[in-house]
Design brief:
Layout: H1 3-22, H2 24-39, E1 44-48, H3 53-59, E2 69-72, H4 89-95, H5 101-106, E3 116-120, H6 127-138, E4 142-147, H7 149-152, H8 165-168, E5 171-174, E6 182-184, E7 193-195, H9 197-218, H10 237-253
Parallel strand pairs: 1-2, 1-3, 3-4, 4-5
Antiparallel strand pairs: 6-7
Helix pairs in contact: 1-9, 2-9, 3-9
Length: about 260
Amino acid sequence: MSELALHWLSHARSVMDRIAETQLPSIRKAASVMADSIEARRWVHLFGCGHATIPVEELYPRIGGFVGFHPMIELPLSFFTRITGEMGVHQFVFLERVEGYGVEIMKGYTFDPRDTMWIFSHSGINSVNIDVALEAKRLGMTLVAYGSAAAAAGRPARHSCGRTIFDVADVVVDTCAPIGDASVPVPGHQDKVGPISTVAFVTCAWMTVCTVAELLAARGVKLYINPSHNVPGDATARQRLDEALAEYKRRVAGV
């Protein structure tokens, strides 16, 4: 393995170690709030922009995820459509800084004060995330924010309220990723390669969801888990998947 590959791996491991050493109490606090929402047959809404949509897409629907998590992904705020041209990076960078866009996004959904809003944002400073955070609070939801909170401290927000999502949130989990994200210097180049925020987000996210599952199971709450349907010999996997999706549909319908 190359020297730079090991450099990135060392950085990723150190971030994961710092999460384990410093964030477990905050993760459990966030998980407790989320467990309350799911036990009440309500939602944990997931939101992020750009590469912070990756943990949103990772949590549900997927094998090992369970009903109660509601992904909110605004396609123009994702990097995963075009690079240039239609819905390209230039437009994305502009849109995530437009104040008021997040308010319009929130109009497309139905919320309840028993819900939790879970926002992923590496820097916490961009207007769309702050719009969503402020609207969630206005609607009475508990707001949970995951990102590089300590490293972002003191950075000016790009929103007229003057606050970052970490300032607004009820619960903050620090992903412990460097604010510059990329972590590996390349000889002869100013910019580094090897971003860390995604592995940090996903690490914190699954630690949280596993804790939510632990809390709900201890309360006797049935989890509708999406099973693997690729394991030979598991005759009921499709049935369990259908049950999970039927439960998701019931909750969407408000039944």
